[in-house]
Amino acid sequence: MECPHLSSSVCVALDSSRFQSGSPSSWCCGVCRSNKSPWVCLTCLNVHCGRYVNGHAKKHFEDTQNSGCHQKKCEKQEKEKPQHSVCMDCSSYSTYCYRCDDFVVNDTKMGLVQKVREHLQSLENSALALDRHRKRKLLESSSNSSKLVKDSVSSLLVTAHCATGLRNLGNTCFMNAILQSLSNIQQFCCYFKELPAVELRSGKTAGRRMYHTRSQGDTSVSLVEEFRKTLCSLWQGSQTAFSPDSLFYVVWKIMPNFRGYQQQDAHEFMRYLLDHLHLELQGNHSRVIMSTLSEGGLQSSPGDKCCINGTSTIVTSVFGGVLQNEVNCLICGTESKKFDPFLDLSLDIPSQFRNKRTKNMENGPICTLQDCLRSFTDLEELDDTELYMCHKCKKRQKSTKKFWIQKLPKVLCLHLKRFHWTAYLRNKVDTYVEFPLRGLDMKCYLLEPENMGPESCLYDLAAVVVHHGSGVGSGHYTAYASHEDRWFHFNDSTVTLADEDAVAKAKAYILFYVERRSCRHVSF
């Protein structure tokens, strides 16, 4: 939004001595000393934590207003008094006005906001350069030390040179974990990175960086384009975390459920993201889609059962599978069959395993991913609240239900249902579920397994999304993903190498498995 309060709130002189030392993204709150989500006041340059930490940045604004009210200054004096209402996120460099209660896209006549933004970016880059220099010196000094220390430092350097983190824009870890996971699914990611760029802006907004806002009226936005640009920014060796603020702005525009800065469900976001990418690709980009699909060997047809809402796109070509739903009336034996396309499967964690929270607990057997898949596909008798309308009996009858997988997707996305509603709140099932890193065999869940080849049902793990914490509206999301035969742990802006043991011990929330056959033969 265009903020009218900048002239009275942005009155800073760029004096480096007034800033804290070190990286701005790691500055500490002046009250609680937390270094999470630091915001700098553009009136006095004091640093405080954001509203989702301890809220001292907002309290700083409120305290300055209360002080003015108690002194009962006249209206003219109050207008001339600095307001302390505008602050800047030291990580994403977005600007926020507490009086407008919204993000700001304009600047002062002197361009003071942009000057502060550039100064913070310069300080961040200097801190990163110093950190790289220290690591280089450590590597050189350890040349005669043990190989373990040497490899450890080398790993840090290798990580920094190839993997790029994503800045947290305010409880956006749910989005970052999904984006990092999708960026490591090659046949999906490569398609978007090879799409031609789309120029959406003209006139006054041409060439200007757009910051996300709730109230901006621009309708010429493209989720596909911003998603493409985000994927292109990852894995380019940048030392600085990428800020997905332009993508987040588009998410706010077209997905109202995700407006604001409260924690969201990563699985729900993934489904909305894939659905909207699919719908947009079906529309304006249909010619590009079909051309690229053909070149990449992913053939589609209007009658393809995996198609959702019409024409196939890269979304359904990669993630699309088909379920057969069989319902049998227990009174007359009438059988009903229905084919349902899916982009992911949501699996219950069987109730007998729900008290086993870690792999090493001795109270019973370990829950495995196969247990969850069997629970999903096993014959189930529907209870009295789900009576089946039998067309032969002409009334609702007791029945059984069973799922078969009629067609497997190239990328099998499995969602473990860790959150469930009780009478008053949504609880988390914190059970550890053991899952294979390689060779997940899906043959026994197929409707016609005899028609499949020896390796066409085998899947290897590509990425895992993990939820840390106790509830869906709180906690934190991270992701593990495999890239060029190495595992990485993505924790917002921080990316580190991970070993397979760490991945295997994770309490998975979403698992992405890539068909072994498609890894070898699908290319773009």
Overview in brief:
It is elongated and about 80 Å long. It has helices at residues 6-9, 56-71, 75-80, 112-141, 147-162, 173-183, 186-193, 223-233, 245-254, 266-283, 286-295, 314-319, 369-377, 500-504, 516-521; strands at 38-41, 47-49, 86-89, 95-97, 102-104, 321-329, 335-342, 345-347, 367-368, 380-381, 388-390, 395-397, 399-407, 411-416, 419-421, 426-428, 433-434, 440-441, 458-468, 476-483, 486-491, 494-498, 508-515.
Radius of gyration: 26 Å
Average pLDDT reading: 78
CA distance, first residue to last residue: 40 Å
Largest sheet: 8 strands, mixed
Which range best describes the helical content: under 10%, 10-25%, 25-40%, 40-55%, 55-70% or over 70%? 25-40%
Number of helices: 15
Detail the poorly predicted runs: 68-79, 149-161, 200-219, 285-304, 520-524
Structural class: alpha+beta
EC number: 3.4.19.12
Protein name: Ubiquitin carboxyl-terminal hydrolase
Subunit structure: Interacts (via UBP-type domain) with H2A; the interaction is less efficient than with monoubiquitinated H2A.
Catalytic activity: Thiol-dependent hydrolysis of ester, thioester, amide, peptide and isopeptide bonds formed by the C-terminal Gly of ubiquitin (a 76-residue protein attached to proteins as an intracellular targeting signal)
Describe the structure.
Strand 4 and strand 5 form a beta hairpin. Helices cover 32% and strands 21% of the residues. It is of the alpha+beta class. Mean pLDDT is 78; it is low at 68-79, 149-161, 200-219, 285-304 and 520-524. It is built from 15 helices and 23 strands. The strands form six sheets. Strands 8, 14, 18, 19, 20, 21, 22 and 23 form an eight-stranded mixed β-sheet that branches. Strands 2-1-3-4-5 form a five-stranded antiparallel β-sheet, with helices on one face. Residues 164-516 form the USP domain.
